Amino acid sequence: MKAYRCPDGKVRIFRVDENAARLQSTCRGIMMPEVSTELFTEMVKKVVRLNQEWIPTYESGATLYIRPLLIGTSAQVGVHPSKEYCFLIFVTPVGPYFKGGFAANPYVIIRDYDRSAPLGTGKYKVGGNYAASLFANNLAHEKGYACEFYLDAKEKKYMDECGAANFFGIKNNTYITPKSTSILPSITNKSLMQVAEDLGMKVERRPIPEEELETFEEAGACGTAAVISPISYIDDLDTGKRYSFGEKPGPMSKKLFDTLRGIQYGEIEDKHGWTTVVIE
C-alpha cells in the first residue's frame, strides 16, 4: 500500500479496505486474531499523517510505502499460535520504480525451486513466502534477468507467479491472469482486472499453460511497487524456448498503467471508490 501526494495537494491512499481484508484473510489462514477494518484504517491514516513531511512530492514520482505487520510476541517454544500479538505499521519513502521511464524487462522460468506449495501458504501474505523466493531470485539476477518466474509446484505445467508479483498476459483484447491456490491475490491485479473491463476488455482468470505464452501479444508482472512491470521476454532455460512480447511496453499495458496510476493520483475519476483522502 502507498500514500500518494497528488497534483491537487491532497494525499491519497489506495484500497485501504481491501488491504484490511487481505490481512484478515491471512490471519484466518495462519491462526492469528483478525485486525478489524476500523482499527486497520485508523492506524493507516494516523501513520501517514504523523509522517506527512516524508511523503515525496508529486513531481518526484516517488511515494510513501506503507507496510502493516502483525507478529506473535508471546514467550514460547513450539509450533502453535501465539497468545499475544503486536500490530504495527511502518512507512518509508520509495523512489519511482522505473528510474529510466516505463520499460520492459526480461524474466526467466526457474524449475528447480518453488515459491510455495499448492495447498500451502502461498495465498497468504506471510514472510515465509518471500524467504522461499530469495535463492531463485538471486539466480535470476546472476543470469541477467529482472526476476524469476515460477511454474505451478504440482505439475510444472502452468504459469504461477513472477517473484513477488502476479502475472498477466494480453491477447485478442483479453486480460488473462493465472488462477491458482498458491498465488497471493494481488490487490493491484484485482484493480487492473476492473480497469480492463472499464476499458472494454474481456477478463479471464484461469490456469495458463506455459505453451500459451507464445500466443500473448503483451505480458507483465503487477504489484504495489511497480503497478505494472512489462515483460520483454520470458526464457525457459530447460527447453531453450524464448517467449517474446516486444522490447517496449505494449499499448494496452501502457493504457492500463496510466489509467490505474491516474486513479491513484486523483487525476482520473475514481468510479469505484478505491481512494481515500488522508490529508486535504
Describe the overall structure.
With 280 residues, the protein is an alpha+beta fold. Helix content is 24%, strand content 27%. It has 6 helices and 13 strands. A hairpin with a 4-residue loop joins strand 11 and strand 12 (241-244). The chain is globular and about 50 Å long. It starts with a strand and ends with a strand.
Summarize the structure.
By secondary structure, this protein is of the alpha+beta class. Helix content is 24%, strand content 27%.
Report Rg: 19 Å
Distance between the termini: 19 Å
How many β-strand runs? Answer: 13
Element order: H for helix, E for strand: EEHHEEEHHEEEHEEEEHE
Name the helicity range. 10-25%
Counting DSSP H or I runs of 4 or more residues, the number of helices is 6
Shape: globular
Give the rounded overall mean pLDDT: 95
Task: List the keywords.
6 helices, globular, single chain, 280 residues, 5-stranded antiparallel sheet, 8-stranded mixed sheet
